[in-house]
Amino acid sequence: MLLARLTQANGAPGQEGEVRDLIRAEIEPYVDVLKMDTLGNLIAIKNPDAPGPRVMLAAHMDEVALMIVGVDSSGYLKFRPIGGVDPRVLVAKTVTVGAKKIPGVIGSKPIHLQRAEEREKAFAIQEMVIDIGAKSKEDAEKLVKMGEIAYFTTEYEEIGQNKVKAKALDDRVGCALAIRLLKEEVSFPLIAAFTVQEEVGLRGAGVAAYQAEPDLALILEGTTASDVPGTDKHKHATAVGQGPAITVMDRTVIPHPQLVQELFALAEEKGIKVQVRRNTAGGTDAGQIQLSREGVKVAVIAVPCRYIHSPVSVMSKDDFEGAYELVKSYLARLEEREGSR
Amino acid sequence: MKEIIAQLTEAFGPSGYETEVTDMIKGMVEGYADEVRTDVLGNLIVVKNGSPEGKKVMFAAHTDEIGVVVTHIDDKGFLRFANIGGVGVATLVGNRVRFANGTIGVIYQEKGDWKELTLDKLYIDIGAESKDEALTKVRVGEFGIFHREFADLGNRLIAKSMDDRIGCAVLIEALKKIDKPTNTLYFVFTTQEEVGLRGARTAAFGLDPDLGIALDVTLTGDMPEARRMDVSLGKGAAIKVKDSSLIAHPKVKELLVQLCETNGIPYQMEVLEFGGTDAGAIHLTKAGVPSGTISIPTRYVHSPSEMVDIRDVQACIDLVVAVSNQDLTGVF
Amino acid sequence: MDIKQVFRTLSEASGVSGCEAELAQHIQEACPWADELRTDKLGNLIMLKKGQSPGPRPKVMLAAHMDEIGLIVTKIEEDGFLRFSTIGGFDQRVLLAQEVVVHGKQKLTGVIGAKPPHIQTQGEQRKAVKMEDLFIDIGLDSAEQAGQVVQVGDLVTIKRGVSDLQGSFMAGKAFDDRAGVAAILECFKALSTITHTADVYGVATVQEEVGLRGAVTSTYGITPDIGIAIDVGFGDSAGLPDTGTIKLSQGPGIGIGPHVHPKLLERMVETAQEWNISYSLDPTPNPGGTDAYAIQVARAGAATILLSIPLRYMHTPVETLDYQDIQRTGRLMALFIAGLDHEFVEGLTCF
Predict the structure, then answer these.
(1) Cβ neighbours of B39 in A, within 8 Å
(2) Per-residue model confidence (pLDDT) at position B115
């Protein structure tokens, strides 16, 4: 299954190779132009020279992970998060490190040896190390290079009522959606930008948009769901199972009002369940794409995911299908409009 | 001019939803401009052609204002919200909110300590008795503004959204006074300034001006026990040296000072330790645009009662007119 | 041209973010190796050394910022003391009792003062002085007197000459990033005796300390294929951990992270090894904070790499480095550039 393969591929910001190769192989048969830039964005275009609006679908390939920044004298690996990771989620996880995919664990002091008050404090990132079983610094340095990445090892699995658990759903769900949507037959130029380095500051998207020069862009994301026990209802950013979320504002973007209205109206017309993203924190590639050149109409459509930026996140397959149906319907609507010109 | 300021400040225009304001301005500048157009982000671009040897000068004043966005409607019809732009929690409790359809609500707080007051402990009461009733007036995701009428105190005026409708008023009044300018002028009424100087960025990319000047409000330090700031109401146009978004181009700063000196326009120098204006976005456009800011000194910025002095406003208008007619050949 | 002497002059010159013209003038005079010199609209100094091949040639941009952090006058008090704020990130604790130059109508010497310890309570003495309690004393007795020579918005720099420490170690102000500028000059000098295909744009950028602003616009204007940012990095010093620092006297730190193109990293390391130039690896998951960040995303993007000259006590007036690290950085860049060709540049979009 595509989403399973996508989430199990590894791709830290700036090192998206595995994901990019997988996507490239998937979409090659369906597109007319396939190019990469110096940052590693993968840009696919159907009907590049056709008349009509240049429509871009954008999803980022990178995921949060851990970068190796040192090896101590005993051969433990020191690391820092690349992208936003809550250090508290890291303790006692398994990882795979670097090009050689060396298995490792993030260890911690056994409970027996801790004082009671120690357990009330969160582990700081500086206190944690990755243990690959190396016997010495030299031993470790033979296997792992500075700047290599440790990835979570979570396997994709379908659980419960139509749910999925996996790592990196943010934003492999977007990638999976864009890949499927590229198969749609349209007559206007359709661009899919698989961007790099979103998690370290929306770095790839602006560069991709500058090249692709879209008139309109739909950013496909995995977004925070906070429908969990202990959270007040009015603090639920999105809820899993309530359909794809449409953004009205976040830290980086206020999407185009008419486009947002159109999407809500279309969802209602087609009977697709959608929700408003009810939180203005966080950012997406839309922030950079909207401000490219003289400005681009943008909207953000996101699949709600619980526990994003951790080793394991959970989403609903129904929300994923809803997002697919909504964007597909929107493309069909554009096609009708273009056809009647 | 007070009439224009009253109309502009009472209009509805949270970031991203500025159409009411830009439409109003379109009406106000009719007959005075050579061209009026709108771009993808909603910026209103008003063009006044200059002589062929003149430079391209972009003036920017933003049309958007801070506000709220509804994030939740509970079973009893109370609204929860997030801020749009820099909203001070201390200015909110007991204040009113207005939505595009005219719905009014009052902001109040859950029980708890004032010192620990945060936005998520506040709610809006629109007088609805149930969720269903609330939904007939407001939707989740809807944008609102802080509701307050304009007040004329003589030389001093109070209103919401003086930031930056007063800048808009300066540009409109200046445009009316300019007949055949030396330079080609782009009066850009920008969008989404309060959320990150966004409209100015795309507008400047399209226009690629030789000189960029933002008209925006700045803080003052002339109130009781105020934070130290050497700008006062009534002492003239403030010429910006720096803020967080911009270090004014030395030549632009010198030009503005010199024009004030030669035209007898009162002015003061401004160093703002935080905050930014559209000039911050304009000067980083393409290969760079020499830029500066003419600031209108304003008390209580980002509260629903922002105060300006009409004599400072006049000084800013005079300065914009002076720039418009200045021969900038060889300078930029 | 004695570049070490130029470096000394540059360090002692004044160029707070936004007012770098004096620096640009000094650098221009110290760069006889450029074919073209120009200043762009924001004040970036662009030195072009053309490649020796028929065009179109690959474009390499070397960027080091010439601005320094400084102070700015915010208010003149009634008794003639000046209040100030900062431009760029200063630790206010290092400011106390520094001598400064106030750039008013003329250059005025001043000292930074605060309430004397004798009249402070014990509690006060244990706390760091706050920025808002500091002031500059220029020896004038009233606002009226001071107003004749100073106005709000005038810049202030720390008055500090360069000290030669043991061996090739030096200390002074504004080594961040005049050291990078010196490395560009060392590179240009070295390139004058080596054949190279690429056009090399040495850029002394403006306004880095307030948000990489000069690099944004100069990159847009140049549109390089490859961008090399040269900045200072955190040198090992007392009280700092090994992780996140680079050692002095061991050449530049070569950055690893999202801001570094993998093929440039590989080639830079190969070049250093081949020519026996010492270097450290400097991994960071956080790509911000240097001109490389801005260069990478201009227009359709550029392949970038960051070289960091190890520096102790960053953002203080006693920044300390080993001049040999500047020379190593310049030489490494020159040899890297000499090895570039079209094929390599075209390969930068192949992953």
Answers:
(1) 294-295
(2) 87
Please, which residues have CB within 8 angstroms of residue C252's CB and are 6 or more apart in sequence?
C230, C233, C279, C280, C307, C308, C309, C310, C325, C328, C329, C332
Q: Average pLDDT in the C125-148 region?
A: 93
Identify which has the larger pLDDT, C347 or C128: C347
Mean pLDDT of B3-30: 98
State mean pLDDT over C236-256. 92
CB of A316 closer than 8 Å to CB of A273: no
- Contact at 8 Å (CB) between C31 and C37? yes
Using the CB atoms, write b or e for C282-306: b if 16+ within 10 Å: bbbbbbeebbbbbbbbbebbbbbbb
- Comparing CB atoms, the residue among A14, A17, A211 nearest residue C257 is A14
Rounded to 5 degrees, φ, ψ at A15 are -135, 55
Spans of all domains in chain C: 3-68+173-349, 71-158
Q: Do B271 and C72 count as a contact with CB atoms less than 8 A apart?
A: yes
The CA-atom distances, in angstroms, between B300 and each of A139, B15, B199 are 63, 20, 24
Q: Check CB contact of C42 with chain B, cutoff 8 Å.
A: yes
Q: B301: domain CATH number?
A: 3.40.630.10
- Cβ-Cβ contacts under 8 Å for C242 (sequence gap 6 or more): A70, C236
**Residues in Cβ contact with A108 at an 8 Å cutoff, skipping those fewer than 6 apart:** A91, A92, A123, A128
Strand ranges (DSSP E) for chain A?
33-36, 42-46, 55-60, 65-71, 77-82, 94-97, 102-106, 130-131, 149-152, 157-159, 163-166, 190-195, 216-225, 245-246, 275-276, 297-306, 313-316
Residue B155 lies in a domain: no
Bridge partners of B144?
B68, B99
B193 in active site: yes
Q: Is the pLDDT of residue C117 over 80?
A: no
Q: Which CATH number fits domain C3-68+173-349: 3.40.30.10, 3.30.70.141, 3.40.630.10, 3.40.50.300?
A: 3.40.630.10
Instruction: Compute the distance between CA of residue A57 and CA of residue A218 in angstroms, rounded to an integer.
Output: 5
**Residue with structure tokens 């550029």?**
C302
Do residues A243 and A319 touch, judged by C-beta distance below 8 A? yes
Distances from the Cα of A290 to the Cαs of A285, A293, A298, B198, in angstroms? 9, 9, 6, 9
Q: Taking the domain C71-158, which CATH number applies?
A: 2.40.30.40
**Among C23, C74, C154, the residue to mutate for chain B (most B Cβ within 10 A):** C74
> Which residue stretches of B188-328 are H helix?
198-207, 250-263, 278-282, 310-324
**A202/C contact by beta carbon, under 8 A:** no
Backbone angles phi, psi at A275, to 5 degrees: -135, 155
Confidence (pLDDT) at A341: 64
* Burial class, C35, CB count within 10 angstroms (exposed 0-12 / middle 13-18 / buried 19+): exposed
DSSP SS3 for B112: coil
Distance, in Å, from the CA atom of C202 to the CA atom of C194, rounded to the nearest integer, reads 16
Whole-angstrom distance, CA of residue C193 vs CA of residue C188: 9
Cβ atoms of C320 and C171 closer than 8 Å: yes
Within 8 A by CB and 6+ apart from B139, the residues are: A276, B70
What is the ipTM score, two decimals? 0.93
* H or E element in which residue C135 lies: strand C135-137
Establish if B152 belongs to a structural domain.
Answer: no
Q: Is C263 on the interface with A (CB under 8 A)?
A: no
Using one digit for the tens of pLDDT, what is the confidence trace for B209-258?
999 999 999 999 999 999 999 999 999 999 999 999 999 999 999 999 99
Q: Residue B137: which CATH number? A: 2.40.30.40
Q: Are residues B296 and B277 in the same domain?
A: yes
Beta-bridge partners for B56: B184
Q: Given B146, B178, B195, which residue is the final one in a domain?
A: B146
Q: How far apart are CA C122 and CA C126, in angstroms?
A: 7
DSSP-derived 3-state class of residue A175 = helix
